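Action item from last week, closing it out:
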Amino acid sequence: MSKQSQALSCPLCTDTPPQHFHKDKTRDYYRCPNCHLTFVPERYHLSLADELAEYQLHQNDPNDPGYRRFLSRLATPLLQQLSPASYGLDFGSGPGPTLSHLLSEQGHHVNLYDPFFAPDTEVLDMIYDFITASEVVEHLRQPRQEFERLWSLLHPGGWLGIMTKLALDAEAFSRWHYKNDHTHILFFSKTTFEWLADHWQARLMFVGKDVILLQKTF
């Protein structure tokens, strides 16, 4: 194990020293042998200004049928779990909130939070029946802190719905386009979410290749 990896710690489970996993032309990637989170060290994180500039390039239109179909991969299985007129939070709603529209069209009430585009922190003082994070968790600079905060905002029985691409083995990772977006600094695997579910004693569901549902059991 290199001195560099010894100095690092997993930003999620904060437990076992990570192992060097991959290197490309611009970044090094490390993987935690405990929770299998793959991450890039802080020295590769973009400045907040550069990160915002990247997000402002996104064309997220709530009226775009293709974008609605994409987000329905999370909305549809989550809707199957919700009671009528549930209250939720779309965490990391982005420059063109759309997932909240899909849910509110089905009679649910959805608040928005995004550190850049909807920075009203008062919505983080409420308790919810569900929280969504679509294409968000791969951007988190402090995942342990953010996940614990979101979990604390859920009622018992509430749902955390996540959509993110799941990392596979080293060979697949080396060819993976998802890592080439420099706003992506975390890469989750099924093992990572299994660790998180065990940590929270939560019910865990994988839906398709990139949707994860976690239910708070108490």
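Closing note: The chain has one domain: 3-215.
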